[in-house]
Amino acid sequence: MSCFTRRDLIYGSLCSAFLTYVPAVSAKTPQIIDVRTWPADEYTRVTIESDAPLKLNYFMLRVADPIRLVVDMDGLRLTDKLKNIIQKVKPNDPYIQRIRCGQYKPTVVRITIDFKQDVSPQIFSLKPAGTYKYRTVFDVYPVQEKDPILAILKKEEEEPDAVQKLVAQVAEGQKRMEENREEADADQLEQILAGIESGTLVPVKPEVQPSAGKTPKPSSQTSKPPVIASTKKKPQKTETKTTSKRRTRALVIMIDPGHGGEDPGAIGKRYRTREKDVVLSVAKILRAELNRLEGFRALLTRDGDYFVPLQRRVQKARAAKADFFVSIHADAWVKPAAKGSSLFVLNTKGRVSSSNKWLARNQNNADLIGGANISTKDKQIARILMDMSFTAQVSDSTIYGAYILNELSRINQLHKSKVEQANFAVLKAPDIPSVLVETAFLSNPEEERKLRTQAFQRKLACAIGNGILKGFGRKAVLA
Ligand SMILES: [Zn+2]
């Protein structure tokens, strides 16, 4: 059995590339700036940040008890800061038992990571990004994946005909998307008919084609559902669908708390509130609320403080056969006056306002700041997906998004009153309606204060949840 994963082998060449630009002896020795650990069930990350690239050699000792990874860092002197690495490993880390370090040779510091179980480490380096300098990253994955969705993902990635499988998967997902839309339409019709019969509802003329700019008018005084047009040509079937015909499969909602781990996202000015914490909290409330409902299964792309690369979040949604994807964020702007909620769907072409471009670039930078180890295969998958049609996805996302935005308008001021478009990497699943919610502005002192409260986090979660429910033709019941 090979000791190292495919990515480790890639790193081998990366290492030699390093040799070409690592400063000669006369240059100053690298200084360790910080050592951080991000323990999580999915994987544990250890990051060593330095002011210059580190030159290192490493090997895995599987015959040892415990199994360990030995890393020799060249051109380093052992400092107190580096010794702190030992204290940084949390005792509840699922994979790492302890980390030791010592001055192995006059200019070589040796780090030994003892593991609790057999692991598959991925080691890679990151160039300076955001506020970070050079980083050497050790991602410790379990050999046997425990999470069923990740297990599916890993298996898929290793299959030789992964590309064909992906294309088939997308086709299946697009079919699911269409079924959901038709079903929701039928439910809308039932609700409307019931409303007309009881005299509580006056029929509204359906719009012919929903466009990105169309949002049901936010109105808090009425509870009638906005009537929306189907994104597809009218279904050929003439019979009216009833609830009894609803399929038995639960609707899978993938909730994506933005950022995490190395990537804190936006940081509030007044209380230093971190976006990654607030959005995780909102996401967890939303998951709990949706999971209480019959016919819904809500999942998170991350349930702790660790980073998940953007494409990985989309892949998780696809592996879970998600019916809907919602990424939760908190905004920030240079001017503290900016406030309110906004909602985005993917823009694949056409005009994007410069502020939305800025926002997308900022969010997509998450992979650089959070630290993604992107393989050639990842790039290949991304390219294939981008060649597919997003028309139906964006159209459906706009409808779901409009419902969510409408619900958000009941609990918060809207920053933009219509569904916006931007080129967010996390929204790039051609087969899953996907939206990104900017809950409020962390850069606005008043909204930062609100975002920190459990009450407001709950309001946000319920508003998003109710919007999703309405999008699927169900009643808004979360409060
Ligand atoms: Zn964000």
From TrEMBL:
Catalyzed reactions: Hydrolyzes the link between N-acetylmuramoyl residues and L-amino acid residues in certain cell-wall glycopeptides
Pfam family, one: AMIN
Comp. bias intervals (Low complexity): 214-226
Gene Ontology molecular-function annotations: N-acetylmuramoyl-L-alanine amidase activity
Domain MurNAc-LAA: 314-469
Name of this protein: N-acetylmuramoyl-L-alanine amidase AmiC
Species the sequence originates in: Parasutterella muris
InterPro entries attached to this UniProt entry: AMIN_dom, MurNAc-LAA_cat, N-acetylmuramoyl_amidase_3
Superkingdom, natural source: Bacteria
UniProt xrefs under CDD domains: MurNAc-LAA
UniProt record similarity statement: Belongs to the N-acetylmuramoyl-L-alanine amidase 3 family.
Example GO biological process: peptidoglycan catabolic process
GO CC list: outer membrane-bounded periplasmic space
